[in-house]
UniProtKB/TrEMBL annotation:
Site positions (Participates in a stacking interaction with the thymidine ring of dTDP-4-oxo-6-deoxyglucose): Y139
Protein name as catalogued: dTDP-4-dehydrorhamnose 3,5-epimerase
Quaternary assembly: Homodimer.
Protein encoded by which gene: rfbC
Active-site residues per Swiss-Prot or TrEMBL entry: H64 (proton acceptor), Y133 (proton donor)
Alphabetized InterPro entries for the sequence: RmlC-like, RmlC-like_jellyroll, RmlC_Cupin_sf
Catalysis: reaction(s): dTDP-4-dehydro-6-deoxy-alpha-D-glucose = dTDP-4-dehydro-beta-L-rhamnose
Record's signal peptide: none
Similarity-based family: Belongs to the dTDP-4-dehydrorhamnose 3,5-epimerase family.
Coiled-coil positions: none
EC main group: isomerase
Associated pathway: Carbohydrate biosynthesis; dTDP-L-rhamnose biosynthesis
Amino acid sequence: MGKITVETCEIEGLKVITPAVYGDERGYFVETYHYNDYKEAGIDQVFVQDNQSSSIKNVLRGLHFQIHFPQDKLVRVITGEVFDVAVDLRPGSATYGKWHGVILSAENKKQFFVPKNFAHGFLVLSDYAEFAYKCTDFYHPNDEGGIRFDDPKIGIKWPIAPGTELIMSDKDKKWGGIEEYTESKKNG
């Protein structure tokens, strides 16, 4: 029990994990995390904090990162469906500023491993979603950074229908773009 399938993408370090699901007429069983299986798949992190949030349709959270205390994250959806995105912010990376998105849902049970120094965010596609994630460092409230979700330099193709009114925090509406972030790192 507990084996996982791991898919990589064009951005090194990002991984989409599909766990084995065992079901019958009663329902299903899935092992959502087993250290040895993840270590074998190249995810040898020690997670120190679990978080969970709920959101309604058209909520967009992100793109967030921790500035001085970066976190690896293992994210999944418990209820509903989201479009989850990671943007590479690793200094010197060949894929700096590139993004990758994946549909995470209660139905597909996929997980997304997002390494340190990536910005992360998601858009809720279902009427309601519960989102859960493991982190390798504790949350530091005064250490949060962000990048605009719609920065044309990044060009994320969010599945947003024309005329959709997004629901976002005031903070997420005010982030600058990747050029501002890059400039601040040079001068920082």
